[in-house]
Amino acid sequence: MKAGRAGFLKDAEDAIRLVQDNDDAVAFGLTFARILERVILGDEVSKAIDTVTAVLRKGTGNPNDAFFAHALAKMKEWSPRPPFEVTIELGQGCDFPFHAFTAPQLMYHSNATYEEAIRETIVIGGENANRGTFIGAILAAAAGGVEGVVPAEWRRETTRMAEVEHLANILAAGDTPMPREKQTTNATTSEWLSAPPPAPEPLRNSPGCIAHGNSTSGGKGPPSHPDDYAALRALYLATGGPTVWPRNACWLNPNVSVCYWDQVLCDPDTNRVIELRLSSNVMVGSLPSEIGMMSSLKVLQLTFNPLLGGAIPDSIGNLTSLERLYAWNTSFTELPEQIGNLKNLRALDLTDNMLTSLPASLASLLNVDTAYFDGNGGLKCPVAPEVATWLAKIEYHAQLCPNGHLP
């Protein structure tokens, strides 16, 4: 096993770049590799994550180091929060960088066994294969292997389990011949990893528009509510949708219901938009006032869009059904007084933005149990007394102005 030996991280980076040759993928993969290495070498899981956080804080040369260190520290701070809620906030998809954060948070949260942790990540849902692989590898390493850790029934029911274990043992042994379908040479592991990938098979049954939370493809679907259509159209055009969004399938397609637009979820009974999940979607610009037209919206997820900023429009106060507003690592400069209209709001995260003040109307949001405003360097202390009192009563929050200063 190469853990702890010179060249371990270089080999890991080479393997990552063979599949995705960019700094984002390397930051994601090496964060996992570093944590796994520390666990293999004997660290407890939480200590391993702490150690990697410190390494990234010092910097390794990857431009994502500071962000990953900050985010892992935030996951430790968020360790009391239910992992389901954190995953809903950050994103259930496999896109960069979600699982590099949600998986450590789940492991910080509890000392779950392998089986308990895998079952929980399945319940959390979304694209849970990567999250489950991350968590499973770490916890199996912490236990010293899969024997007695992975339930025997799971191993029996896993297709080609013996082959998977055989290949894993070959990889763990180091630079030994690596089998590969239709391979006739005695290539070593490093040669196998550096070989060109086989030509992809032709796509069959290529999907049409598959939106978040929908399994239907290619159909027109239910009729779009005109207010939802107008709001989504304005948002799309105002924040770089046609040019920079990586996830924009079907948006503005006149033949497809908004309920089938990528990252949009509708209520199946009313056909109104209830969730909009746009984390890490390269949004640029500002939210348009039309955002307030989605009167049935319950979840607005905008996290990891640092080029999305300006003032949050007053019309946000029209979203009276809203329960969760997530905007960590965006660049909003102002939260309007109308935020106090959102009486159903339960979670509000505006960590790492550019806010300079907090409206007194926040104190009227009595159902909120999660609220974060740390990382807004322009906020002035002390905050309004009613806001400070309100925040202190919230179950999950970051203390503002300890000793009269921002954290």
What is the level 1 CATH name of the largest domain?
A: Alpha Beta
Number of continuous helical runs? 13
Q: Report the order of strands and helices.
A: HHHHHHHHHHHHEEEEEEEEEHE
The CATH homologous superfamily of the largest domain corresponds to Ribonuclease Inhibitor
Structural class: alpha/beta
Radius of gyration over all CA atoms, rounded: 23 Å
The average pLDDT value, as a whole number, equals 84
CATH topology of the largest domain: Leucine-rich repeat, LRR (right-handed beta-alpha superhelix)
The end-to-end span amounts to 42 Å
Give the number of domains.
2
Beta fraction: 5-15%
* Named CATH architecture of the largest domain: Alpha-Beta Horseshoe
Q: Could you estimate the helical fraction of the residues in percent?
A: 25-40%
Let me know the largest β-sheet.
7 strands, mixed
Shape: globular
**Strand order, biggest sheet?**
1-2-4-6-8-9-10
How many runs of DSSP E, i.e. beta strands? Answer: 10
Which residues form runs of ≥5 with pLDDT under 50?
180-187, 197-208, 210-218
